[in-house]
Amino acid sequence: MDEVEVVVAHAERATLRVGGVFLKVDADRARTDTEVGAMALAPVPTPQVLWRRPPVLALAALPGAPLGRLGRAPTASPAAWAAAGAVVRELHDAPPPPWPGRAGRSPAALASELDAECETLVTRGLLPAGLVARNHEIARAALRPWAPAFTHGDLQIAHVFTDDDQVTGIIDWSEAGRGDPLYDLATLTLGHERHLDDLLTGYGTDAGVDPDVIRGWWSLRSLLAVRWLTEHGFDPFAPGCEVDILRSRM
């Protein structure tokens, strides 16, 4: 009999694996609606939907392994990163869905959220004021107008699966929608900056990828994540994770 593996669990949702099946439990039906709808529209490999009985969504496991993990040295080859870049570009070039995604927040809304979060990080003593101020400054590069694209919205390195230097699928689409394509590129390379050039080999440099904006998203995403991760049982202070990413900007 297959054992039940808890892949991730916190107050908002949980994912379990039983053999070749992933069971995603989410009390927010809208997130699951987004995930199923985005996978149906995305022109890239995604997990097969086996069945859905709210609040549970059952998905088939993908072949291969994640491109890497945040906080760990990636083992994927430059060719695998390039393949991931090509698939992400295919997604970004597709007609965007009619709904806004996580990467679709306006620059004004993000600026307001960033200002408030930075103040909270300092007043609660979660991070030193100098570290927050430096990364706040860098993050401003991401706060500019952008052309809407079909974005994944949570394109963490662990969400892209590869096998033999080919992408076998992308998981976790609950944040997908219209958004800034550079947010996806920054999320995928977060903590693995040296692979950005490999990623862009497949993605292409004709799309106006600005490294300063990517760096801005690295800082912005990390600043906004630290408190949430801490409050939900994760450790952003672990080696190679969000706080180390912020420190690397000093």
TrEMBL record:
Signal peptide: none annotated. InterPro entries: AGP_Transferase (IPR051678), Aminoglycoside_PTrfase (IPR002575), Kinase-like_dom_sf (IPR011009). Pfam families: APH. It comes from the Bacteria. Coiled coil: none annotated. Residues 42-217 form the Aminoglycoside phosphotransferase domain. This is Aminoglycoside phosphotransferase. It comes from Streptomyces termitum.
